[in-house]
Design a protein that fits this description.
ten-stranded antiparallel beta sheet; 3 helices; alpha+beta; disordered N terminus; single chain; about 210 residues; 10 strands
């Protein structure tokens, strides 16, 4: 006769049932309190804007037809910008240190007028005028106008601590900028036989860029 195997099934008592119910209620309360105290989920923020793209000289790209043959086909890089590097002529000189190649200056004044100059040499401090007959002034008013060297004098570029001058004659400068790169002026001059580049002879600069060969 085979021995019987008893299978025990443990039945919870009423006390255990009550404790189990209380435990469940406590856990539900704790979960509710945690939900109340938990920090609200962070709102999904919009993606950060991409870094601004370097300008491609916009209208100034039309100048390619007037540049000297030796620079045609070369790429240009932005060496100085007032909104990035500060409104300071000395900062412009520092950015030009060690450079020897040509520079394209592009200005926009507070009236929205765009104009500038092409210098055959880097912008630098100097005791006298320097440069070559490749230097010229230009303006968009609103169509592109380029003022080349007339051959009457060699007052191309001169850099002082307190001003930058391009083109001269009869005490007037084709383009001059103050030490803060904020105030400037333009007058007809013998070097380029230019018109006033801006809408007025005196202007305030909104942005200035200096481009050099890459």
């Amino acid at each position: 006769m085979k021995g019987l195997r008893w299978r025990y099934t443990r039945l919870p008592s009423q006390v255990e049932d009550a404790l189990s119910v209380e435990k469940c209620e406590d856990e539900e309360k704790e979960e509710e309190e945690e939900e109340k105290t938990a920090p609200a989920p962070a709102s999904v923020s919009a993606p950060a804007p991409e870094d601004p793209v370097e300008p491609q000289l916009a209208e100034a790209s039309q100048l390619s037809l007037h540049l000297p043959p030796r620079v045609t086909g070369h790429l240009w890089s932005l060496a100085f910008r007032t909104s990035r590097d500060g409104f300071s002529l000395r900062s412009l000189y520092r950015q030009m240190e060690g450079r020897s190649g040509p520079v394209l200056l592009v200005l926009k004044d507070q009236d929205g007028q765009m104009f500038g100059a092409f210098s055959s040499s880097a912008i630098r401090l100097s005791k006298s005028f320097y440069g070559t007959g490749e230097t010229f002034l230009f303006s968009f008013a609103p169509q592109l106008k380029v003022f080349k060297w007339t051959g009457s004098n060699s007052f191309f570029v001169k850099g002082d601590l307190d001003s930058l001058m391009m083109g001269s004659g009869s005490g007037q400068f084709g383009l001059w900028l103050d030490e803060d790169l904020y105030h400037g002026g333009s007058h007809p001059c013998a070097t380029f036989n230019n018109e006033v580049l801006a809408r007025q002879e005196q202007f305030c600069i909104k942005e200035l860029e200096a481009w050099i060969l890459s």
